[in-house]
Amino acid sequence: MKAIGKTATSHAPDAARRQCQERLGRFCGEVPSAVFACLGTVDGRAFAFARNDAGDADDGKAAQRMAAISCSLVALSESFSRESIRGNCNHALIASDHGNIIVVRVPSVSRAYVISVGADASDMQAVTLRRALDLSQDLASIIDGAN
């Protein structure tokens, strides 16, 4: 598991960042199909990031790029859901030939974080979704405990 230590600053204490980083690292280490897990702020900055050892080589900027894309995707999904069916978006799912990516707004009190989880094609979509939702709850507990 590779963890990225350089992430954007936030109002959450360093202890919460460290705990979130550790939780993402455990997730990627325990889930064989996990490719990455990225926790970002809603303004697109990386807060914590982990990638499975089997993932592509990291240039040090993957966390920032993934956080920005995740934030944009959840914002677009929420807008599209409101405009098209007048409902709230709970998560977004991307299915590809190589696996699935789930993006979820972390259900913390502040609602200021977004988690994205990537899994390889060995994982079924429903399993990836369940893991992402469970991980988002864990991270919300850490974030809310720090405030």
Question: Would you mind describing this structure in some detail?
Answer:
This protein has 147 residues and is of the alpha+beta class. It has a single domain, classed as Beta-Lactamase. The protein has helices spanning 14-30, 62-85, 125-146; strands at 2-3, 34-41, 46-51, 91-96, 99-105, 113-120. It has a six-stranded antiparallel beta sheet with strand order 1-3-2-6-5-4, with helices on both faces. The chain is globular. The protein starts with a strand and ends with a helix.
Helices and strands, with pairings:
Layout: E1 2-3, H1 14-30, E2 34-41, E3 46-51, H2 62-85, E4 91-96, E5 99-105, E6 113-120, H3 125-146
Antiparallel strand pairs: 1-3, 2-3, 2-6, 4-5, 5-6
